[in-house]
């Protein structure tokens, strides 16, 4: 098994509540082993055991009330 790291910028993620919501949604995706949110950069690093498609990540982030930055 291999480990994959993906970093995405999340628009409007500015507080702990935002970070917790995004973390909860992304952690629920299959094969995700860790989610690390950095509020100062507005980014999230997702560690997974398999590839995650951008649309799948975007849908999870949208469920948390945010969107991926372009």
TrEMBL record:
Q: Which Gene3D superfamilies match?
A: 3.30.70.100
The family database entries (CDD domains) matched by this protein are listed as:
HMA (cd00371)
HMA domain residues are 4-69
Keyword check for Metal-binding, yes or no. yes
Q: Name one GO molecular function term.
A: metal ion binding
Per UniProt, what is one Pfam family of this protein?
HMA
InterPro entries reported in the protein's UniProt record? Heavy-metal-associated_CS (IPR017969), HMA_dom (IPR006121), HMA_dom_sf (IPR036163)
SUPFAM superfamilies in the cross-refs? HMA, heavy metal-associated domain (SSF55008)
Per UniProt, the keywords (alphabetical) are:
Metal-binding
Q: What is this protein called?
A: Copper chaperone CopZ
Q: What is the lineage of its organism?
A: Bacteria, Bacillati, Actinomycetota, Actinomycetes, Pseudonocardiales
